[in-house]
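step=encode ok
step=design start
structure_in=
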């Protein structure tokens, strides 16, 4: 090959590279060639993550690797995306991809096709899981109290308690259990070797009994004279913090009290008044919902629901039967009637499928919804309808997917989430008794071949 031909080939190669390089750059940025009359069309990206991870992803029936995964270069429009893993039910949705936009699917939970269930203890009418998620208080129909570990083994001798128990209330440090009945209040120090129930006559005829989040053994309540009282039962020390109180709620730093139904008083944990918030409404405050981080929701006498954001009164729903703050204190579930659940985004900009300060319908059923609560990380709700326990995601794109955990009984099953969402505890009708049952929602790795 002579020199002239080599020079021509070199020139052609350089020209080809210089022409192709910009096209490759634009392609990587998400642009595609369209007819000359149209501008370049940007594509979209979807981020997919799941619990458990290493689940297989398909987009329009084409494999795209395993979670977590970023899938680029998706043409705008509706795609069919499926996430699946052996032993679990597949997750599937139709998602709209917008040009030059990242769509996130980070809150996918895969549920087992055949969950593992175990009866922990039989003939139970009430139970409570401790805040440390390692202890269970279980009350039998004969009013015998069992203190169990998270595997169901008894760690203390059983107690016979007074009848008509209304509540089992663990202290924040899980060292004390308060047993509240119509006949009085008893405390049990579960940290002792052989504890016995201690009667607390100071708590007779009181209401709204609440543990102090910071001081071990300290309780707050309203007495029959509407006084807010702090009671440290290990020392039997009783202190009146404020008078003429109609309602109160406690965060990790403050006590919020209501004397006038149009004002909220902010007090420190010693009861000293620090501030007052005026509520400019025609209705009175009937309930306070305060998070440990001082997020506040108000239910008024006309059933309307508001939150307070930087002293601003923000409307949430014109009618509410119940509500609950998410674990991160940025979302609120709202039950507007006995068959409908909504979610209000109070301030989470990362949840792009729930617009800020907007109420979104999550589920509406033909049967009443009972005992709704947040599940695991706060991107799913769990509730009971008839005798069925349901978990529903709050992502309304396409449709919120649901999972049926188990059938239980027509009464309240007292659903309790443990282990960060890996275990559910609830009451289940079996044979001739109602038993405390544990259902495991994560399949142990040893159950998979190849591990």
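sequence_out=
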């Amino acid at each position: 090959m002579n020199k002239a031909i080599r020079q021509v080939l070199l020139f052609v190669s350089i020209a080809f590279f210089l022409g192709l390089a910009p096209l490759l750059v634009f392609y990587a940025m998400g642009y595609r060639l369209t007819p000359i009359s149209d501008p370049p069309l940007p594509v979209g990206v979807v981020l997919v993550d799941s619990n458990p991870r290493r689940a297989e992803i398909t987009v329009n029936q084409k494999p795209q690797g395993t979670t977590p995964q970023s899938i680029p270069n998706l043409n705008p429009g509706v795609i069919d995306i499926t996430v699946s893993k052996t032993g679990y039910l597949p997750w599937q949705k139709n998602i709209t991809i917008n040009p030059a936009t990242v769509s996130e699917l980070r809150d996918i939970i895969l549920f087992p096709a055949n969950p593992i269930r175990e009866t922990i203890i039989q003939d139970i009418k009430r139970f409570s899981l401790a805040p440390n998620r390692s202890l269970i208080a279980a009350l039998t129909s004969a009013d015998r109290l069992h203190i169990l570990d998270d595997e169901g083994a008894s760690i203390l001798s059983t107690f016979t308690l007074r009848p008509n128990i209304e509540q089992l209330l663990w202290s924040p440090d899980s060292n004390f259990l308060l047993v509240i009945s119509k006949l009085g209040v008893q405390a049990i120090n579960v940290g002792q070797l052989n504890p016995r129930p201690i009667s607390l006559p100071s708590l007779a005829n009181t209401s709204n009994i609440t543990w102090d989040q910071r001081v071990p053994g300290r309780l707050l309540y309203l007495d029959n004279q509407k006084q807010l009282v702090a009671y440290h039962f290990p020392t039997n020390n009783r202190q009146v913090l404020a008078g003429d109180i109609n309602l109160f709620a406690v965060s990790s730093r403050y006590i919020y009290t209501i004397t006038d139904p149009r004002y909220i008083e902010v007090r420190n944990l010693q009861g000293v008044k620090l501030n007052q918030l005026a509520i400019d409404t025609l209705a009175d405050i009937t309930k306070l919902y305060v998070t440990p981080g001082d997020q506040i929701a108000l239910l008024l006498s006309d059933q309307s629901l508001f939150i307070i954001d930087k002293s601003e009164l923000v409307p949430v729903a014109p009618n509410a039967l119940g509500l609950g703050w998410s674990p991160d204190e940025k979302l609120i579930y709202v039950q507007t009637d006995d068959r409908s659940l909504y979610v209000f985004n109070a301030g989470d900009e990362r949840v792009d499928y729930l617009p800020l300060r907007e109420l979104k319908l999550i589920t509406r059923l033909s049967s009443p919804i009972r005992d709704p609560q947040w599940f695991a990380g706060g991107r799913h709700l769990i509730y009971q309808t008839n005798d069925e326990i349901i978990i529903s995601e709050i992502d309304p794109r396409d449709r919120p997917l649901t999972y049926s955990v188990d059938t239980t009984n027509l009464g309240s099953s007292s659903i309790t989430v443990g282990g960060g969402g890996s275990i559910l505890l609830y009451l289940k009708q079996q044979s001739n008794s109602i038993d405390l049952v544990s259902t495991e929602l994560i399949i142990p790795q040893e159950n998979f071949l190849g591990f």
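step=design ok
step=annotate ok -> The helical segments are 3-28.
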